[in-house]
Fold this protein.
Amino acid sequence: MSESLDYFRQNRLPHIWCPGCGHGTVTGALTRTLAKLGIDKNNVVVVSGIGCSSRASGYLDFDTIHTAHGRAIAFATGIKLSRPDMKVIVMTGDGDCTAIGGNHFIHAARRNIDITTIVMNNSNYGMTSGQYSPMTPTGMLGTTAPYGNVERPFDLGKLAIACGATYVGRSTSYHVQLLGELLEKALLNKGFSVVEAVVGCPTYFGRKNKLGGAVDMFTWQKDHAVNVKAAAVMAPEKLEGKFLIGELYNQAAPEFTAQYDALIESVRRKFDNFQGGVRGCAQNSD
Amino acid sequence: MPEAKLMQGNEACTLGALAAGLNFFAGYPITPSTEIAELCSEELPKIGGKFIQMEDEIGSIAAIIGASLTGRKAMTATSGPGFSLMQELIGYSAISEVPIVIINVQRVGPSTGMPTSLAQGDVMQARWGTHGDHPVVVLAPGNVRECFDLTIKAFNIAEDLRVPVIVLSDETIGHMREKVVLPDYKSIKVVNRKAPATPAGYLPYKADQDGGVPLMAPFGAGYRWHVTGLSHDETGFPTNKGEVAGDLIKRLMRKVEKAEPVIRDYATESADDCDVLVVAFGSSAMSATSAVRQARAQGVKAGLFRPKTIWPFPEEPLRELAAKAKRIIVPEMNLGQLVLEIERVVAGKAPVERLSKVNCELFRPEEILKAIIGGSK
Amino acid sequence: MSEQKRSFSHVIRERYCKGCSVCVAFCPKQVLVLKNGKVFAERPEQCIGCRLCEMRCPDYAIEIVETGLDKPVEKDAACVDYSVPPEANHA
């Protein structure tokens, strides 16, 4: 058992992700960040949805739950509200989070509940072998977009910010150090944090779109990502066909579970002698 | 002696839940169950419990499964359209064996139907709404006091068997008010899930094959275990071995089968020696009770069998009563759902007459009385 | 006083490596190669310990261990001395 893999369920490795799939890189970045922050393994819950990305929960040595497609954030909301003291992390994919899971994503952001959501964006549904997703760039191919995707993809960063997320960042599996820095700040942010990780899917999206193998997809990320700080001083036409990485938004706001706990305190003060005639439940909880 | 109170069915459900230890509610407004959510939002903060109104019913059931995983007693309440949205995760609760309680206050369906009107059309959905073989327990209150009692029973069964339990109420039972005398709270038996003693060697889904219920560790207690909706083995991790997946399903189903005699719950009225046995549940049973009494007053030997646990269906007691009855009448506010189960159980021993009503108005006792007397002259 | 050159060894977990060669392609010092489908530290002496291979590896199949230190590096998570019995230490 290697110490560097301490946050992994090492008996479950090697994992099932394809050679060169960025999901492995993102999951490794998360474990390194948690190690750097010295977070106690017993105080973390990882919640995942369905899809390649969401197999991550099975490999991590925490309390983990592999939920239903699109529902990770809703499960995580129930867990976080029940145990605000725990570090709750959602690991999801572009399809899982922004297609079927979109409604829970925007509401969790609106509530600003302290959940760190890592969206592993490989621009397609890998598990079901390559359909396009709400984050597949227009014109690109998918097994359900054989003539090219006619839809316009989400800009997840803008979507998260518009809905109320208080920490939003984007990086790639190539820019793994930046990814670690964003994850660190996201994990420390007391509110809904979103880190999008653009990753390559050589097996399906890469092959379908003739983008080459794993190395080519990592290289594509290197050549097409521009740090938001650099972009600020670049001429707009230079940003053509590029996407922004780095910290996109970082502004604190009241956190949902803290607000609810404060509400409980004020209600209980008002009703502090409340043992409630008919409602003197013997089972008063925590 | 606790004093009598005028109480609404939905309110009694909430009080029952609180008495059973409810400390987490997630829900979404939907007629005719919204009062449950409203009362939970008011009562839970007083006891340090948590309430959240989620963005939809799928989010609501997802949140209560998450909450239950941390060791809380969690509930949601809904009606037809929301109940339909919850089906996938009822299956998730069943396969992951995370206990939850769902109050489904039935209304006229399908689809939007008539939100403020009575129907009992979700009987089969309550049993088979979600895909795949799965265990579920469904309890049907027949009056306001039973909303209190059966919600407590729902939590106790859920905790004991680690299954999703549905309290199948309806618009009439849920909205009507009755004089109710609640039991002394100290007399209420509350069951909690059995937890393992130590994380060492913990196998979250290890149970004896014959319908055993595994010990359940809460999240956040150092067990670091894995929960999934994928078919899994005793370690909780996914399996693709057909035999192992099959054994899991058989064990899950067997949990409820094995517990049937214990969770069986029904009421009868002058049913021991009767020519005409009326079988009814929920609000239909209120009218049927009156009809049976009127028939008896006119010298007709009528009796009532009222299942409260409708899934698993109480076959044995019905079979006994059916053997003695000449005719069986099944009044239902749908076009025939629980009656299919009754026909299966009675198996021809006595003719079963369906009395279906779907005009959104509860049976009047005389409608059932006519059926009782009509046939037996 | 020329700064004493740091040296590193490469812990390779062959069972994990899927031969995607991301590490090989992006190693700034071309230390790594693929040998019968698995990563191999061909020129370990050129390694500068940047750990990009370790961080980018999707399969946790390579890990850098600083060697030639008189005292072990104190516990700083950023460059933790993962003293690990190497499955296949190529240096």
Q: What stands out?
A: Chain A touches chain B through 49 residues (CB under 8 Å). The two ends of chain A are 38 Å apart (CA to CA). The first strand of chain A starts at residue 44 and ends at 48.
